[in-house]
Amino acid sequence: MVKEWQDDGWRLKFHLMPPAGWLNDPNGLCQFRGEYHVFFQYQPEDAGGGGKTPKVWGHYAGNSLLHMRFEGIPFQTGRLDRNGSYSGCALIENDEMQLYYTGNIRLPGDYDYIHDGRESNTIRVVSRDGAHFGKKELLLKTADYPAECTRHVRDPKVWKENGRYYMVLGARLKGGQGAALVYDSCDLKKWKFLKKITTPEAFGYMWECPDYFTAGEENILSVCPQGLEEEEWQYQNIYQAGYFTVKGDIREEQRLEVFTEWDKGFDFYAPQTFRDEAGRRILIGWAGMPDAGYENPTVTRGWQHALTVPRALSSRNGKILQQPMEELKTLRYGKQEIDPTGSFLLEDGSGDVELQAGDGGREWQILIGNGCALTCHKGVLQLEFSQGWGYGRKIRGTRLEECRNVRILIDTSMLEIYVNDGEIVFTSRFYPEFASGTGTVKPETRTLLLEFNCPGMI
Ligand code: FRU
């Protein structure tokens, strides 16, 4: 294991990652009295993320989302969340930071999935200063969820609308269908079940990490369905993350329209959004995958996974655009002009590359380091690794009618690719110079060669 982080060329430069150990979902995103807070699912002592130690929350805070300090573990597990402080959200209300999350309790014995041996407590913890956290309050327990639910009910997202409070929870129904449960409350303590939201036909068996919000003109229900059948260029990861546009009101009559995947890359799951004090709707995702069937090579260095950069959401023609939040541009230095049919070296293995497509933007290719190719060919945009990272697979892609622009954030071992102002995004970890097959990790170089074969692009 590498002890000195500075020796580890895969530590990220502008993405949040665990100080050591394992990270999954972003939790409790908020801005409180000017300061940004990003919590996350965390196992400090187990980079492999096994069940040996319960998940806790980790905490980053800072005046800017670009420069955050690690604040440690806000609260330890206890009676209500013995086997894990699972995912949840933040609500800023009454000048308090209120955290809502799932307390995971494992029961001994063998169970099938309907009677799965777990309890899921919905818990609230309040902080008055964003640094100290009070007593855990139990808001909902297993017996409070509708009888048609299995024991898989979790990941509360709470918001306020017209003076009332609402909560969505992700659920797996006994009939094998994913759903979101909507609750309401007038005091944030007593919660009443309002309704269940699902699709007419099962769309996966479980919906994790639901979120409900407005982006631009659209009402959005974001969920992470598990159990979708893979299709060509669709649903290619083991689990998916995407959004339904909602026609009507989630609390009354509503219709879920098309489901769009948030991200087409290998590593993206469990996004959460929040509104910052400037009124921006910001999304952060986990740049990772649950039960992915592969292990990232950073595990041998004592850490695994990261979060995406914060993305500002807007809408255009019914689609949500995701764009790296504007502040990221302030990190730029040493600007270079790109020769669209040439190459250049990224000296520290990280960069922020922008291309605009002219008339000829239909057929092009960008090679990133050895082993990664982004190719637009015959109406398909494809990301290909010579090593297989996602679920043993090497290619992810999507159909693309027209490419107008591309922005690539390259960060030592992470790529985020934004196409057409963020209408399509690919997030993937990558490990330049990783030698697979031999079981060894070569010392990676910090320079990265980018090669462009992009006629018609500037
Ligand atoms: C999603 C998820 C959530 C759960 C958490 C546990 O990745 O499975 O449903 O609350 O991770 O870490």
From TrEMBL:
Pathway where it operates: Glycan biosynthesis; sucrose metabolism
Domain (Glycosyl hydrolase family 32 N-terminal): residue spans on this chain: 15-324
Family annotation (CDD domains): GH32_ScrB-like
GO molecular function: beta-fructofuranosidase activity
Localization per Swiss-Prot or TrEMBL: Cytoplasm
GO CC annotations on file: cytoplasm
Catalytic activity: Hydrolysis of terminal non-reducing beta-D-fructofuranoside residues in beta-D-fructofuranosides
InterPro entries the record matches: ConA-like_dom_sf, GH32_Enzymes, Glyco_hydro_32, Glyco_hydro_32_AS, Glyco_hydro_32_C, Glyco_hydro_32_N, Glyco_hydro_beta-prop_sf, Suc6P_hydrolase
GO biological process, one term: sucrose metabolic process
Keyword field: Carbohydrate metabolism, Cytoplasm, Glycosidase, Hydrolase
Catalytic activity, EC: 3.2.1.26
Chain ranges of the Glycosyl hydrolase family 32 C-terminal domain: 405-436
One protein family per Pfam: Glyco_hydro_32C
UniProt similarity note: Belongs to the glycosyl hydrolase 32 family.
Role played: Enables the bacterium to metabolize sucrose as a sole carbon source.
Name of the protein in question: Sucrose-6-phosphate hydrolase
